[in-house]
């Protein structure tokens, strides 16, 4: 009875709560549970025996209808909402978990194979993009930083380990900041112009290189007002071991800078950026390093890197993959930077560099870069670097491996996989389309539009026209130009069907607009030829703006076929041409055929008939007289 009462209390609360869809996906080594909150709540995630309990500060109605659509029960046994503000995830294994937030406000819970003892300590979480907090190294010489760094959501997310900390950390940091305050460039203030007496030498922080040295390395001169960072000549490969070369007596700032450089070289750009923000420094070098960190994960606007683009090969490479890209003076500097990059990130940087060169219209330089990087060593793993270069596309197995690893190339890989299947004339499996849709909440911008386009084209190729049209309507709310293009592909495919299938599909899509006017007229004309004028009128009614001349003529023709000549004449008003004149004549003839003929005149009796009638009257009168005489006797 008590349980029944509790149920009666929970049900109305859940019914009035905000709804949150729960999505799942299976990845290599972990299962992802993604929850789409419309308004992100305060939450906690705790382990209770063999379950994970997600609690929120408000009532949430979780949609669990599709939770086992794309995953098995190897790691997750069941989902249950036992109260209005909690969700229970029953685990099938002794698994560990990690969490992070999506840019759109969703929460991701990744459940990994491995002992549960390695779970992070999750209490009240920090807000997304909040400043990270890192405890002193001396207090946490080994293991993850506590509390955990609040990392930005991204495809590269790993734990950060803290180096040992010196006892005089605070004094060293204060002294270092005091010395750097007047020397380094402010993060957004440009170059500091110092007052110098005549004949005075510039300060040590003013680093201008000799022209002969720069030209000897293969790139043009650096304007003297640009201050090149001290790491401009480094190779990314050197950053992998930079932390080992830092003396134990160095300040905490130096330690963290070296650790951030190692993360950047390993491809963990977002993590490195959060680490740099945890130890702020007003110098221009720190701003450049932060922009380099973000550039490892995505093409962003990087003004400091762009300003130092000609300071060295590394700066030229990172400025090229920024948004907007900065074209190097010589492609040899990009080749040099890529050859000095670690193997795990080299293919990724090669692809982005070639994509930027192609976007700038530098196909020749992109070809040179591809040939140079491949001739320098073994061919890179299938990382999509050659897709835009008209090479043979990677196989589906190679692309699927990239998608399974959830690397930054996963979105590009699944898009190419779908396009390869379509180019081969095959139907794209639904599981592949589901994988592509699962990636959409994690990406934005042009990359997202490309995947959406590939998915909808796959739906069209699979004759799932109604589903494709519904998705096109969603696209139209944020990318109208893409929606118009996809709408044209949809109805061109329908127009290419056989007569019976064409009519059936057009009847199902009767309330879906047709954006292209010429295509709309062609579809309506075919419906008219198939003697379905009502469908043709319905298609023409879906147009936006003033109708075309051909549309008016077709409407007039349909009006004549439906015995409505007056409407046809109205539609033809103001239209010139032989075809319009022919329709006018047909309408006039149809109207004229409706005038009734006059009644025929009354027949004129001939003389013979008149004489016969007179004799009949006379005979009748004589007979009447005889009868009268007989009766009188």
UniProtKB/TrEMBL annotation:
Signal peptide: 1-17
Compositional bias per record (Basic and acidic residues), positions renumbered to this chain: 207-217
Top-rank taxon, per record: Bacteria
Keywords: Signal
Name of this protein: HEAT repeat domain-containing protein
Segments for region (Disordered): 191-225
Organism of origin: Palleronia abyssalis
Keyword Signal attached: yes
């Amino acid at each position: 009875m008590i349980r029944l009462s509790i149920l009666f209390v929970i049900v109305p609360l859940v019914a009035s709560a905000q709804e949150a869809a729960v999505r799942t996906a299976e990845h290599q080594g972990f299962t992802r549970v993604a929850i789409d909150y419309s308004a992100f709540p305060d939450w906690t995630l705790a382990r209770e025996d063999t379950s994970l309990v997600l609690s929120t500060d408000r009532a949430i109605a979780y949609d669990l209808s599709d939770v086992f659509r794309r995953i098995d029960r190897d790691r997750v046994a069941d989902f249950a909402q036992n109260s209005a503000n909690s969700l229970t995830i029953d685990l099938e294994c002794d698994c560990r978990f990690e969490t992070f937030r999506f840019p759109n406000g969703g929460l991701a819970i990744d459940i990994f194979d491995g002992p549960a003892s390695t779970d992070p300590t999750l209490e009240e979480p920090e807000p997304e993009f909040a400043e990270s907090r890192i405890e002193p190294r001396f207090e946490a010489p080994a293991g993850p930083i506590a509390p955990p760094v609040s990392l930005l959501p991204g495809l590269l997310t790993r734990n950060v380990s803290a180096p040992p900390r010196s006892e005089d950390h605070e004094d060293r940091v204060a002294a270092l900041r005091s010395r750097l305050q007047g020397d380094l460039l402010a993060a957004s203030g440009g170059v500091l112009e110092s007052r110098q007496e005549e004949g005075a030498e510039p300060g040590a922080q003013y680093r201008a290189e000799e022209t002969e040295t720069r030209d000897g390395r293969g790139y043009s001169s650096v304007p003297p007002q640009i201050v090149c960072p001290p790491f401009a000549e480094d190779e990314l490969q050197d950053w992998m071991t930079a932390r080992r070369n830092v003396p134990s007596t160095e300040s905490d700032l130096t330690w963290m800078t070296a650790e951030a450089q190692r993360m950047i070289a390993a491809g963990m750009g977002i993590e490195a950026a959060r680490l740099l923000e945890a130890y702020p420094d007003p110098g221009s070098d720190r701003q450049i390093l932060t922009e380099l960190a973000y550039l490892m994960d995505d093409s962003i606007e990087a003004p400091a890197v762009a300003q130092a683009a000609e300071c060295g090969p590394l700066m030229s490479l990172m400025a090229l993959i920024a948004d907007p890209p900065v074209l190097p003076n010589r492609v040899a500097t990009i080749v040099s930077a890529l050859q000095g990059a670690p193997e795990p990130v080299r293919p990724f940087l090669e692809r982005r560099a070639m994509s930027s060169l192609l976007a700038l219209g530098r196909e020749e330089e992109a070809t040179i870069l591809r040939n140079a990087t491949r001739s320098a060593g073994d061919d890179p793993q299938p990382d999509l670097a050659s897709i835009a270069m008209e090479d043979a596309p990677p196989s589906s197995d190679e692309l699927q491996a990239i998608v399974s690893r959830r690397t930054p190339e996963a979105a590009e890989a699944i898009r190419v996989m779908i396009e390869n299947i379509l180019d081969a004339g095959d139907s794209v499996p639904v599981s592949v389309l589901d994988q592509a849709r699962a990636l959409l909440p994690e990406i934005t911008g042009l990359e997202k539009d490309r995947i959406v386009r590939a998915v909808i084209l796959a739906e069209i190729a699979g004759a799932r026209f109604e589903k494709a049209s519904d998705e096109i309507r969603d696209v139209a709310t944020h990318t109208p130009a893409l929606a118009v293009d996809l709408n044209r592909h949809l109805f061109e495919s329908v127009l290419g069907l056989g007569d019976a299938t064409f009519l059936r599909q057009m009847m199902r899509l009767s309330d879906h607009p047709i954006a292209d006017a010429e295509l709309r007229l062609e579809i309506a004309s075919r419906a008219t030829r198939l003697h379905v004028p009502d469908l043709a009128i319905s298609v023409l009614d879906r147009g936006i703006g003033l109708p075309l001349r051909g549309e008016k003529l077709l409407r007039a023709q349909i009006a004549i076929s439906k015995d409505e000549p007056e409407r046809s004449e109205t539609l033809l008003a103001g239209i010139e041409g032989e075809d319009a004149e022919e329709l006018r004549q047909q309408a006039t003839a149809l109207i004229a055929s409706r005038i009734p003929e006059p009644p025929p005149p009354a027949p004129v009796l001939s003389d013979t008939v008149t004489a016969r009638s007179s004799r009949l009257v006379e005979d009748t009168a004589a007979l009447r007289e005889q009868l009268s005489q007989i009766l009188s006797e």
